[in-house]
Design goal:
This protein is mainly beta and 364 residues long. It is 10% helix and 48% strand.
Length: 364
């Protein structure tokens, strides 16, 4: 008996080792998968001038140029636009365009193509036109408070911005736009939101969400940093169990439209329309009423406005003398049929945009 035990001891030990190995593998197999985390969570800057409010995102590097430029965070458009001033040599910038002698221009890590366009911001009553070129570079979004760097992405490099009412040229970088909408940029370009180009890991979806903006941080003529307003990359909880009401978007020739069908009620009447929730509209919400008897009128203070989307999101607000300012317009005057809710909407509601599944989420 003792001899047999000694003779087969290596097999017994080997069997024990195999058993331990199998048990170990089984334990590893049952280990929960890592919790998915967003790509980044960044703060934004809030700013107020008279009745106009802005939320600003800093761009701290374009190509090899390390300089902070403050851009308007805009859910109502797509594509990042930035003034060429300071990014490429001044000798290459003229009043009629950027000088490109070959097929393209490569300077300071920025590739500027010969593809030109004019982008218009605003409506038929007022706006700004940007003139420039399609360009590519690696971009760092954020600043010392927190940042994230993209891969090489397309953006619009403009050499001048003109006020359509006065014809005057705007100051350098005055109209830098960080457009995060779900469609592609207008004109003849095809540039999507800079937030849509990030590569994502398992169980993280391309998109972003906004926490409620802080009313108290809008201070006259002062940039105020508010942490953790922007989350880049959506995790399963954002899309399934976090209280957002989802709205599927309609595909158009310019990508997916951010406009959401809804009923708009005000002054004892209700109309059907489409809604755009636009951080780039700095003051007045604009209700487009095709039956309006005047081109434009402002609702009196203490007026009640209610919106109910076809997907079941509902929001009611009351106008004041300096908040939730609301105009009623005839679309024949503005040439824009959409009802646009301004930046004030985002102080009462959270906003989510799912680029992968083409949905907007709203939560109040």
């Amino acid at each position: 008996m003792g001899k047999m035990y000694k003779e087969y001891l290596p097999l017994i030990v080997g069997g024990l080792f195999l058993t331990v190995l199998i048990a170990s593998c089984k334990k590893d197999h049952n280990t929960p998968a890592p919790t998915p985390v967003p790509i980044a969570t960044l703060g934004l800057y809030e700013y107020q001038s008279t009745i106009f409010r802005r939320v600003i995102i800093p761009i701290s590097q374009v190509g090899t140029v390390k300089q902070i430029y403050y851009s308007i965070f805009d859910t109502g458009s797509s594509a990042m636009t930035i003034d060429a001033d300071g990014l490429i040599p001044a000798s290459l910038i003229t009043s009629s365009g950027i000088t490109i002698t070959g097929d393209s221009l490569l300077v300071n890590g920025i590739t500027v193509t010969k593809q030109t366009a004019t982008l218009t911001y605003g409506d038929a009553t007022s706006g700004i036109k940007e003139y420039g070129n399609l360009a590519y570079a690696v971009i760092t979004i954020g600043d010392a408070n927190g940042s994230v760097t993209t891969k090489r992405i397309p953006f619009f490099l403009y050499y001048k911005a003109i006020d359509t009412q006065t014809g005057n040229k705007e100051d350098p970088h005055y109209n830098d736009i960080f457009g995060v909408g779900p469609n592609t940029s207008f004109s003849n370009l095809s540039i999507a939101s800079p937030l849509s180009y990030f590569d994502t890991k398992a169980n993280v979806t391309q998109g972003f969400k906004l926490s409620k903006f802080d009313k108290a941080s809008y201070i006259s003529n002062q940039l105020t940093y508010v942490k953790e307003l922007l989350t880049i990359g959506l995790v399963p909880d954002d899309l399934s169990s976090n209280g957002f009401i989802m709205h599927s978007l309609t595909h158009t020739s310019a990508g997916y439209s951010p406009n959401i069908p809804a009923t708009i009620s005000f002054n004892g009447k209700s109309i059907q329309g489409t809604l755009l929730f636009d951080t780039g509209t700095p003051a007045f919400a604009n209700i487009e009423d095709p039956n309006a008897t005047v081109n434009q009128t402002t609702l009196a203070a203490n007026s009640s406005v209610t919106i109910t989307t076809t997907s079941g999101f509902s929001y009611q607000y009351t106008t004041t003398s300096d908040y939730n300012l609301t105009q009623v317009e005839n679309p024949s005057f503005t040439h824009d049929p959409r009802t646009i809710f301004s930046i004030d909407f985002f102080a009462d509601n959270e906003f989510l945009l799912d680029y992968t599944n083409h949905r907007i989420g709203l939560k109040n």
